[in-house]
Specification:
The structure holds two protein chains of two kinds. Chain A contains seven helices and no strands. Chain A is mainly alpha-helical. Chain A has one domain: Four Helix Bundle (Hemerythrin (Met), subunit A). Chain A is flat, with a radius of gyration of 23 Å. In chain A, about 35% of the residues are buried. About 5% of the residues of chain A have low confidence. Chain B is mainly α. Chain B has a single domain, classed as Cytochrome c oxidase-like, subunit I domain (Cytochrome C Oxidase, Chain A), CATH 1.20.210.10. Chain B has 14 helices and two strands. In chain B, strands 1-2 form a two-stranded antiparallel sheet. In chain B, helix 7 runs antiparallel to helix 10, helix 8 packs antiparallel against helix 9 and helix 10 runs antiparallel to helix 12. Classes of the chains: A mainly alpha, B mainly alpha. Chains A and B meet through helix 2 and helix 6 of A and helix 5, helix 6, helix 7 and helix 8 of B. The complex binds protoporphyrin IX containing FE and copper (II) ion (CU). Protoporphyrin IX containing FE (HEM) binds next to helix 2, helix 3, helix 12 and helix 14 of chain B.
Chain lengths: ~240, ~575
């Protein structure tokens, strides 16, 4: 509604100072900086959403499930090894840890927030390691080893990169997701460093740090959701 | 880092010359870096187009243009013009320069990311040019880069060239994302007091919406690029079906070339509007300023920009009518395509109505703006032909298409870019260019582009195919085609040479031009009201401006001058600029 009101303003009728723009500093509260980073992150997440939506659409279209446009009929679903579920759990746990960090940072306890953040980071790293193991298992399938992951186990001989689009897509999509996780880990490590340096006596420094943690938590929640959606895609197809 | 009186954002103050002009975080310097790089690359693409014209006009006369070279020229020319010139120049160049100044900010909200954006862009350009020197040369697959032909033997650059192209595009997308994040967030967050959304000039609106579109569309190109690289290097079969190339099976199975086309055009069509919307916005401002009239239907103009931006994500498959899609899709996409004509036509009418009974000053920026109306209407009308499936099928892949898209997205934005450069040059450099040279440049360019692209429509109706090195002895090609081709080439040579006037004028005026008035056109928008010309670091001196009105108060009855700057308080208000509630 506010947006509609803003877009239907008749600017030629209303000379005057007008309602303040979002960032116009209020006279009283000069400590708060406009939260550009929050908005910036939201915009960025929009881009990431599109990236993964497009890759998922490509996945579905290549499967041949898309009207008017058959894939090559060579699609063989990959298996669902238990590690996949374990990794998902690790990611969710990391998300919880980041929220714990946020709670503590907001409560004005930067050091303890830092500890929770570190835990979250460690869980995130564990997730990445788990994904690498999955990748190895899949590569093993191509080399002819039988494993829970292998399309071959259920559907005949392995065909390798060229012949197993589902596996190729798994690498592509989980790889892109993993890179985003790594990027998030770097950002959260920087935030951790900031938490360690923050002067607990300064309100401004503490709120600033809490906001940084909030950005981490938000990013992490988002990447966890993306992973859940991707899991849904992998498991259901 | 220091904050200035009433602004809570810290401003980065460089200490060294390198910090100020090379690794600069100042949006104005970054804008100029973007602009100069883009124009330099564009010049290269222009040379390529002239080489192509030489071959088409005088087939076989030039030994150094072999068939594979021709295809490489076509590809590099198209890609550079669309992505590395126009996108970079309109958003990275004009977006960077104009957004903070027009909305009353001191800089972009993430200056460091903004700087990175430029350096990534430069890297993408370097990789692109490195692609010229790899074994096999650059790719010759056409700017659309459709697999499988781009990565199978027989196409120039199928092994290395295509990889360099895709890598370069990937880097470009990263650069654009960093820039686009800045443009969008800055518009949302850093507007000065009183600068409501609907008080922003149309230029900012165009750049803003185009940036959002870019953020949403470029990921498709990114995904397509990565998947092509994997198909080529690792041997996956995302796009490449089972094929026999040069008598041997490639090993791929079952990939879907159509999938690439969907991804490419999900980017490619919005890309047209990523280039067009900033041009629309800028043209609206040029016309209003130089006709000394408020913009007719400002709100409709803004809404049209937003609606066009939204709709253009639902039309991509009109580029695929002949690709073997399900025919029902063709119907859907034809309809959505024609629907876009409505907001676009509204914009055209509003421009014309702004001119209607205006106090038109035919200065050079205005000449270019009016020229844009000609070429854009022209290209828009031929677009209606091509938007219809049944008309498109025979015209597809002919020179009619080449004529159409050059009119609508080649020449039109370029004319706006010229107009915009002439318009803002006095603000950017503090100097004025030479009027006579500028007029000469305008007339040769404008008439020349008609001489080049109008005959192409005729060639296309005769069935002359695009992306052909030579026509040879083809039954349905009459002699007149060859004469037309010669004529086009001569016109292209003239236009090419005339750009020398522009560069000479710009560079000479930079050092020798007369000092410019801070507001030579009597424009009302904020960028002309800076305390210094050219604006200093931080743009606004001690205090940010306060905005009291929209950007189009021209020829207001009863006002002292024929324009009222956006930051001039209404008479009842305390004019001293004291604190406002
Ligand atoms: C005077 C300036 C220009 C001339 C003489 C020119 C000429 C040409 C020629 C001869 C072709 C190849 C036709 C063919 O064989 O298929 C071409 C293709 C193309 N041009 Fe231009 N052009 C000019 C400016 C531009 C501009 C400003 C743009 C910006 C959008 C542009 C975009 C393209 C594209 C996208 C293609 C298609 C490439 C492909 O088929 O892959 N051109 N141009
Ligand atoms: Cu299109």
């Amino acid at each position: 509604m506010r947006l509609i009101a803003a877009l239907t303003e008749k600017p030629w009728l209303t000379p005057g100072p007008g309602p303040s723009a979002p960032s116009a500093p209020a006279e009283s509260e000069s400590a708060a900086r406009p939260w550009d980073k929050g908005v910036g992150l939201t915009v960025f997440l929009l881009v990431v959403t599109l990236l993964f939506t497009l890759m998922s659409s490509a996945y579905v279209m290549r499967m041949g499930g898309h009207a008017g446009h058959a894939g090559g009929g060579d699609w063989r679903p990959i298996g669902e090894p238990p590690l996949l579920w374990l990794n998902t759990g690790l990611l969710a746990a990391a998300s919880l840890a980041f929220h714990a960090a946020l709670g503590r940072a907001r409560a004005g306890r930067p050091r303890r927030a830092g500890a929770a953040l570190a835990l979250g980071g460690a869980l995130g790293l564990a997730f990445v390691a788990g994904q690498l193991l999955l990748w190895r298992a899949l590569a093993g399938c191509f080399a002819g080893e039988a494993a829970a992951f292998c399309p071959a186990a259920a559907h005949g001989i392995p065909r390798g990169w060229a012949g197993d689009p589902a596996a190729a897509f798994f690498y592509l999509i989980s790889g892109a997701h993993g890179l985003h996780i790594l990027g998030g880990l770097v950002a959260c490590a920087l935030t951790g460093g900031r938490l360690a340096r923050v002067d607990p006596g300064s309100l401004a420094a503490r709120t600033g740090a809490a906001r940084a943690v909030q950005l981490c938590a938000r990013y992490w929640d988002f990447m966890a959701l993306v992973w859940l959606a991707l899991m849904g895609l992998f498991v259901s197809t | 880092m220091a904050t200035i009186a009433d602004d809570l954002r810290p401003l980065h103050h460089p200490k060294t010359w390198i910090g100020r002009y090379v690794w600069s975080q100042d949006h104005k310097v970054i804008a100029i870096q973007y602009g100069v790089t883009a124009i330099g690359v564009g010049l290269f693409a222009l040379v390529l187009s002239f080489l192509m014209r030489l071959q088409l006009g005088f087939p076989g006369r030039f030994d150094f243009i072999q068939p594979e070279n021709y295809l490489q020229f076509v590809t590099m020319h198209g890609m550079i013009m669309v992505v590395y010139l126009l996108t970079a120049l309109l958003l990275g160049g004009f977006g960077n320069y104009l957004i903070p100044l027009m909305i009353g900010a001191r800089d972009m909200v993430f200056p460091f990311v903004n700087m990175l954006s430029y350096w990534f862009y430069l890297l993408s350009v370097i990789v692109l040019f490195a692609g010229l020197f790899v074994p096999g040369g650059p790719t010759g697959g056409g700017w659309t880069l459709y697999p499988p032909q781009t990565i199978t033997g027989g196409t120039p650059g199928a092994s290395w060239g295509i990889l360099m192209m895709m890598a370069s595009l990937g880097i470009f997308v990263i650069a654009f994302t960093m820039g686009g994040l800045n443009y969008v967030t800055t518009v949302l967050q850093a507007r000065t007091r009183g600068m409501t959304l609907m008080r922003m000039p149309c230029s900012v609106w165009g750049i803003f919406v185009a940036s959002i579109m870019g953020l949403l569309a470029f990921p498709a190109l990114f995904v397509a690029a990565i998947m092509t690289i994997l198909d080529s290097v690792v041997g996956t079969s995302f796009f490449v079906p089972e094929i026999v190339s040069m008598g041997e099976k490639t090993g791929h199975t079952g990939g879907s070339p159509i999938l690439f086309q969907h991804l490419f055009w999900f980017f490619g069509h919005p890309e047209v509007y990523i280039v067009a919307l900033p041009a629309f916005g800028i043209v609206s401002d040029l016309i209003s300023v130089h006709a000394r009239k408020n913009l007719f239907g400002y709100r409709m103009m803004v809404w049209a920009i937003v609606i066009i931006g939204g709709l253009s994500f639902f039309v991509w498959a009109h580029h695929m009518y002949v690709s073997g899609m399900n025919p029902y899709f063709g119907f859907f996409f034809a309809t959505s395509t024609l629907v876009i004509a409505i907001p676009t036509a509204i914009k055209v009418y509003n421009w014309l109505l702004t001119l209607w009974r205006g106090d038109i000053h035919l200065r050079v920026p205005m000449l270019f703006a009016i020229a844009f109306l000609f070429t854009f209407i022209h290209g828009g009308l031929t677009g209606l032909f091509l938007g219809n499936v049944s008309v498109d099928v025979p015209l597809s892949d002919t020179f009619f298409v080449v004529g159409h898209f050059h009119m609508v997205m080649g020449v039109s934005p370029v004319l706006v870019v010229f107009g915009a450069i002439y318009h803002w040059y006095p603000k950017i450099t503090g100097r004025m260019w030479d009027e006579r040279l500028a007029r000469l440049h305008f007339w040769i360019t404008f008439l020349g582009t008609y001489a080049i692209f109008l005959p192409m429509h005729y060639l296309g109706m005769l069935g002359v195919p695009r992306r052909y090195y030579a026509l040879g002895d083809t039954v349905f090609i009459p002699d007149s085609v060859h004469y037309a081709n010669m004529g086009i080439t001569i016109a292209a040579g003239l236009v090419f040479a005339a750009q020398g006037l522009f560069f000479y004028n710009m560079i000479w005026s930079l050092f020798r031009g007369p000092r410019a008035d801070p507001n030579p056109w009597g424009a009302a928008s904020l960028e002309w009201q800076t305390p210094d010309t050219p604006p200093h670091h931080g743009n606004w001196g001690e205090r940010l401006p306060t905005v009291y009105r929209w950007a189009y108060d021209y020829s207001v009855p009863g006002a002292a001058r024929d324009f009222i700057p956006q930051n001039e308080p209404p008479p009842a208000q305390n004019p001293a600029g004291g604190p406002q509630a």
